[in-house]
Design brief:
With about 120 residues, this protein is mainly α. The chain has helices at about 5-15, 35-40, 55-75, 90-95, 100-105, 110-119, and strands at about 25-30, 45-50. It starts with 5 loop residues before the first helix and ends with a helix. Residues about 105-110 have low confidence and may be disordered.
């Protein structure tokens, strides 16, 4: 990434109150335990090393969104009222996800996973 490392971007986003709530998943070729620790200490919500499993990536994305939705519901100013999220699980499943095959072309069962998400 030109100009800044992923760790630097993560630290910058997580140190700013206006952006600190945004979930960050570092998807990286840096797979050493030291780099993993550096990513988590920078504030990343997840650290996934390449080669990676698309299923793992999607599971982590869905869990992060669910966690944010639960927090939003719990800390809503009016109990019982949940304001719509900018990005929901239903919205993600309805996305045209043509970019996913290029992420991991060797993943067995990728086509069936993509088909199930489009439903």
């Amino acid at each position: 990434m030109p100009g800044m490392t992923g760790f630097e971007v993560t630290k910058k986003l997580k140190s700013d109150f206006d952006t600190s709530h945004i979930p960050i998943i570092l998807l990286t070729a840096l797979s050493s335990p030291e780099k993993h620790l550096e990513g988590i200490e920078a504030g990343a919500d997840a650290y996934i090393a390449k080669p990676f499993s698309v299923k793992l990536l999607l599971a982590r994305v869905f869990r992060l969104i669910e966690q944010r939705d639960k927090l939003r519901e719990k800390f809503s100013s009016e109990p019982g009222i949940v304001r719509p999220a900018m990005c929901t699980l239903t919205g993600i499943k309805n996305l045209q996800i043509g970019w996913l095959p290029s992420l991991n072309r060797t993943s067995p069962g990728l086509n069936s996973l993509l088909m199930s998400l489009r439903r």
